[in-house]
Amino acid sequence: LNKDTKSNIRAAVKVGFRYLVPRATFICTTLSIGTNRKFDLALPSHFVTLDEAGQADSVDTVELYSHYWDVKIIA
Questions:
Q1: Residue 4 parent element (H or E)
Q2: Distance CA 44, CA 25 (A)
Q3: What superkingdom heads the lineage (predicted)?
Q4: SS3 20
């Protein structure tokens, strides 16, 4: 893909993201994306993070609590 096509695709994805994400009832994502500050600003109140069993360490878990007020850990 050339540079113009890549920038057009990037702009279209950004518009779609800004429109769809705030309207979603809940979102499934990984811990690394769920704790990203840019993603955090666009989120509705409910989302689910998915990660491989045992992969989430205490730093990832604490980071979830620092970003969101209502965290429930289900193992």
A1: helix 3-20
A2: 7
A3: Eukaryota
A4: helix
